[in-house]
Amino acid sequence: MIREILTGTEPLLGMTSPVMVVRLPRGPDGQSRGFDPTSPRYHALAPSSIQASNNCCSSNFGEEQRSRSGLRERFLRTLIAMVGKPVDFTMYERVSVTAVFAASDIDILNFQVSHLQTPLGVQKEALLRCPDIIAYAFDL
Hints:
Layout: H1 2-7, H2 40-45, H3 48-53, H4 58-82, E1 86-91, E2 95-104, E3 110-118, E4 121-129, E5 133-138
């Protein structure tokens, strides 16, 4: 009814819209759809973590996993060290903001901050989306 008022047309009942379906080419076994994980093209284009998860590079897998584990631990320790301290965040579009760091969610997608000082003013409490943050710095 609202659609009739807005567009001046009668609703199209029982009419379906065709939907395009994109299908991947048949896989190497003829049954699946996808790419051959043993092909040189797949290895050239795949991220290193996917390459390392294959059995072809088992020696690199352990080394890569140790490196990732160490980096993750260092990052989590910096989050713990930031709690209650003023932190300078560099955001996209060269925007710099300062806030007192409070917490992060479990997926590290958002930072909870207080006393956020922005070019437009000060916010008492705020959430910063981590994908919008380019860098952050704080004094130990």
